[in-house]
Amino acid sequence: MENIPELNRSFLAFVQMKILLKFINSNLKKELKFKLDSRLEDLLIKEASITDIKSILAIYRSCFNNLNYSRVTLTAEKLNDYFNSANSRIYLAEYHEQNIGFIILEIDGVTTKHGIILNINILPKYQRSGIGANLILRAFSFFEENHVAQVLCEVSLLNQAGYSFLKSVNFENYQMRYEFV
Question: Is residue 1 in a domain?
Answer without folding.
Answer: no
